[in-house]
Amino acid sequence: MSPALIAALPFLGALFPGLAARFGRGPAALIAGLATALALAGLLSHAPQVLAGQPVSVRFSWIPALGLDASFRIDGLGLMFAGLILGIGLLIILYARFYLDDREPIGRFMSYLLLFQGAMVGIVLSDNILLLLVFWELTSLSSFLLIGWWQTRAEGRQGARMALAVTGGGGLAMIAGMLILGNIAGSHDISVIVTRAAEIQASPLYLPALILILLGAFTKSAQFPFHFWLPHAMAAPTPVSAYLHSATMVKAGLFLMARLWPALAGTPEWTAIVATAGLITLLLGAKIALFKDDLKAILAFSTVSHLGLITFLLGLGTKAAATAAMLHILCHASFKAALFMVAGIVDHAAHTRDIRSLGGLRKAMPVTFLIAAIASLSMAGFPPLNGFLSKELMLEEASHAVWLTPWLVPALATIGALFSVTYALRFLAQTFLGTPRESLDHAPHDPGFGLWAAPALLAALVVASGLLPMPIFGPIVDAAAGAVTGAPVHAHIALWHGLQPAALWMSLAAIGGGLILLGLYPRLRAIWDATPRPEAKAIFDALIAALVAAADGLTARLHNGALSRALWTSTLAILAAGLWAFWGAPHAPGQRTLLQPGGVAVVGGVILILAALATAFRHRDRVLALILTAIVGLLLSGAFAWFSAPDLALTQISVEVVTALLMLLALNFLPDHTPAESSALRRLRDLAIAACAGLGTAALAFALMTRDAAFPLISDYHWAQSKPGAGGTNAVNTIIVDFRGYDTYGEITVLGIAALVIFALAEAVLGSARARSFLARMPQRHDAGDAHPAMLIVGTRFLLPVALTVGVYIYLRGHNLPGGGFVAGLVFSIALLWQYIASGYLWSDHRQRFNHHAFIGAGVLTASLTGLGAWAMGLPFLTSGYTYVHLWPLEEFELATAALFDLGVFFCVLGAVMLSLATLSRLAQHLRPAPSGTKEA
Amino acid sequence: MELLVALAIGALTFTGTYLMLRLRSFPVILGLTFLSYAVNLFIFAAGRLKTAAEPIVGQTEVPTDPLPQALVLTAIVISFGMTAVIVMMGLGAYFETGEDRVDAPEGRDGRVEDASDDPVGAAAETPMPKESRA
After folding, report:
1. CB contact under 8 A, A701 and B9
2. Which of A46, A80, A346, A904 is in Cβ range 3.0-4.6 Å of A862 for a Cys bridge?
3. What's the confidence (pLDDT) of residue A783?
4. For B91-101, how does the pLDDT look when each residue is reduced to its tens digit (9 = 90+)?
5. Which of A530, A551, A572 is the last residue of a domain?
6. pLDDT 10s digits, A165-218
7. Does residue A187 sit at the B interface (CB-CB below 8 Å)?
8. Within a 10 A sphere around the Cβ of A70, how many other Cβ atoms?
9. Number of domains in chain A
10. Do residues A670 and A741 both lie within one domain?
11. Range of the domain at A659
12. Which residues contact A607 (CB under 8 A, 6 or more apart)?
């Protein structure tokens, strides 16, 4: 099975549980388990080859320009992690099937779980750091869904939010770090990066990259000072906690450190940061775990502590330590997942997880007790369980580590081990030993087989791998450690290394000290409860609250609900950016030869400027302002015509007509005067801002026009290819319908959507009682003497076919001469709008055969089908083709698919313009109860 | 000639910006129309000015730049669509509130005071559904 398929299987599987859930909980879990099992089988089929030292890889080119390839690779490390993720995932699915309440939507749960599983598998099998980042972010997002599963509970929401904020924030830092790393190494492939250690570590950017990447890893793996999110994530359902905090989520950070170990480790900086953070986390987590009463909280802080231990081992930077880290990842996953499941079982049976109200469950729940005993003794590091093996290796490595003084690291490591003995035994003793509590509301008992099968399997593994470490863990640890360190590793894992090693004595000290500590526990607890200490959640909440307050304050200042303030502040910001750019650039005048001013053009230009300025100063009279605007628009279209843009001139003049109609319709409702309400100071301020904006744009435009283009023109290609490539002589039209057809496709779609938005808004307005009563109460305007003058009606009827013929002509010639679908659509709309003007809305609307929506749909559909037609010929979307046809008695003419596309443009423009204006005039029908516009012409 | 066009762009921007900063919806919409004019003319001018050089093969040897023209052509039509949407929004707000101001009344916390009596605002605050237990 392809490594890419292994990563994809959980995602594909995530589609199905939701569907299967309607057949019951079994099928939903079964299908989720099936997807996982298939992926696991695919992974294991590669195991012999990978264990023999031959990684399997596959690569698809995705965005080669960015160095982003979808490349997957299974090596020893990937095999171990993917195996853990899928193997424990399978057990979690089984456990969750029996754990979740009947009323929980299990299909959704399984889908989230598989989504998360897929993201994790993606991380560990990616061979490209950019791809890895994508999966990394996916784990943050999907874990958010899982942690916040009980959306109705405040702690679930807060825990999920905190986890997302911390791990997502770290992920952002990591993106920057990864990009720097890829830049130094000259490749985004992990298999290449790990061979470039010398260049990377010599680079001046090594330290920033290292810190940024470690921020990502530390936040994910809950390393000090980011350890606080993990216990709050315990608000999740227990299967989620068991999965996220034993085998997956928090191990992602460790995985990353292991993955990049060859490239980043071995420097003093690495050891100083990673080993120190690990050691602090190890001690801090263990100490807090001692004093927690919630079963899951104890396990959470113990997880923090064990993650610290593994980080510490990776931080030491030696091969033996990295090997010990790999072993401990395996051991920790097995016993911690089992313990979480036990906590869930106890919670189910006793309806509480508070260790103070538990006790004596040994007799009532013998099976659970057995599993819990094995797993927690392994966590404490008792022989012959697997926790002992990895702890021995850790202590052995610690005994060689020198940090400040030779004895400090071994001493601290021993203390960490000692604490873990204490909290593990307390977990076991206070829950299962002692006398049964009467306070429980009913008698707890062992759960059904389904619930204890998964943890029992894990407990069996804990024992078996403790007794036979080499056959069970040897090969995979060797392969993983070999992949991490880049050299063959032959680990020697055994229960008994003789009396010589320091680890044995440290281990004995830890067990002895842990037992003593357990005896002294009540006294310690009293001291702990009496000492004040910083609460991480309170600090985090205060930090977030401060950030939110700062953002709110800034927003309130810039945007207080007043549009005008938002607009003038943003205008000033744009002006400031322009000024800044102007300052930093050379100011030599442009050398381009300028056009001689022509008589008519100068007059037109001066009138345009005067009309524009007059609009600003006389805008209170709205009708006058509208007329002045129309004058500006007309002169603008004249300017387009003068400067060799006939297409633009045609478009501008027809849009001007429909815009004027639109504004007149709006003025039909709105007051026809704007009251003078701004203070003189405010007007002065706005005038100053507007003057700066005007002068700035004028200067920019002048500077641009007096210089030649800095780069060769793209349009040289369009010009040269217009006839031979697109089959049209009008270069503007060939660009619109052919070269940049995709853009046009988007634009007509947007136009259609805009018209539909207008329609929907009008529906909403008409649906509101308040708006309807407002419309009904609106003062009547004085009608003209005759609302529908006969001359106008006759004239428009007569002009209709003429105008439509002109429209068709403009459409047909568009490919070669000025015109095309846009203009033709506008001309058609204007011809139809005349009828509305002359005979009224109702008269025209009754004679409307096709509704305007259909035109919009037909337009987009025609354009899409034209585009898809290219696929049928095996060409990319919207590739155009053309041919010449000779039909007697006509001259030879051209048939181009672009003309069909232009037809789509035509329909869409027609539909959109008509729908917008017809919708507005429809509103007017609500002005008076008995419409008088029904007069038949 | 270039100076005149640059001044025209400046004048259109000036009027557009000034009207956009007014307090009623109609002048703001006119302001946006003027800004569209200014931007379209600016993009067009970025192709440099030329007379009697229509970009039509066979009619012209060295044409003016057709690409900005194609950009502006679609932009003109799209600005119509945009204007129409804003007009409809302005009308809707006017019908609902009886006012055509663009600035919300300023509350103490800088937010729009909810004067609406429809239950949509209240629906967003429905209490959380009952807790489910594992």
Report:
1. yes
2. A904
3. 63
4. 998 988 888 88
5. A551
6. 999 999 999 999 999 999 998 888 888 898 888 888 888 999 999 999 999 999
7. no
8. 19
9. 3
10. no
11. 618-674
12. A631, A635
